């Protein structure tokens, strides 16, 4: 299916008579919204764009009202990558590159984030309607893989016990991806039927992965979803669902920025106020500007209201 009125598109499909599902995603408008606020080196844009496509693909299968947040905390020139996608496919992303470093255009994921082997990959599932005392689920693992697709495949196999394969690509114009996932098979009543069903599903899964593995990055970047689906799976019987449309959205608010300041603690905030006179904070995701003077900050610490901040990715500056 082609994009609808040039909207970003996520297309789900499923193989008939086999527990294999797939998704294509094409993100251009949202990607432009992210890139116009930052000047990232080409290699950083590639990894962040691939991570954006992957987050959309994983979020589309979540069965709750909330957001998935993917983070990589690095020990190289890139200190942090963050992508957030909620159940409505509203997305935002940012990267933090160390000051004064030179990043080669062809730098690998390892070069950027994990030269010392200490990088961590974090996935957080944050429900929108938490029960009292409920905390977001967070999985933290070493950065295991030489590219973004392999990192996520390894995470999914370790945490979800699901065979998952991804093909990701990104450039200055678009972030695209393909996901295939082998679902748990349904048990048959008869052992013979179970064995035949399992064999058929394994055969379908292996064939789907083999076909998708012929996809080159340049082909993924330059070809629309409908054409790719027809080109790869034209011999398969698949069911296609109504497309969904990712879009850029930043959830920052003055209240959330205030909560971030409260997490820093009154002593640190007062020290910054003494030095700067007022606190100016720009959202790393959308660039929105917030200012807090001494009266504003004093009001933050009135009472004992608990705070919850998932990501505090902003800088405090004069």
TrEMBL record:
Keywords: Chaperone, Cytoplasm, Disulfide bond, Redox-active center, Zinc. The keyword Disulfide bond applies. SUPFAM superfamilies: Hsp33 domain, HSP33 redox switch-like. Under oxidizing conditions two disulfide bonds are formed involving the reactive cysteines. Under reducing conditions zinc is bound to the reactive cysteines and the protein is inactive. It comes from the Bacteria. Disulfide bonds join 250-252, 283-286. It is found in: Cytoplasm. Gene3D superfamilies: helix hairpin bin (1.10.287.480), Hsp33 domain (3.55.30.10), HSP33 redox switch-like (3.90.1280.10). The keyword Magnesium does not apply. Pfam families: HSP33. Redox regulated molecular chaperone. Protects both thermally unfolding and oxidatively damaged proteins from irreversible aggregation. Plays an important role in the bacterial defense system toward oxidative stress. Belongs to the HSP33 family. This is 33 kDa chaperonin. It comes from Massilia violaceinigra.
